[in-house]
Amino acid sequence: MDSRPIGVFDSGLGGLSVIKELNRVLPNENIVYFGDTGRVPYGTRSADTIVKYAKEDERFLLSHSVKLIIAACGTVSSVAAHTADSLPVPFIEVVTPAAKAAVRSTKSGKIGVLGTSATVSSNSYKKKMLEIRPDLEVTQVACPLFVQLVEAGWIDRNDEVTVATAKRYLQPLVEADVDTVILGCTHFPAIKGIIADIMGDSVTLINSGTEAALTAADYLKKNDLLGEGGQRRYFVSDRPESFSATAGILLGDEISQVETVSLEDFGGK
Question: Which residues are catalytic?
Answer without folding.
Answer: 73, 185
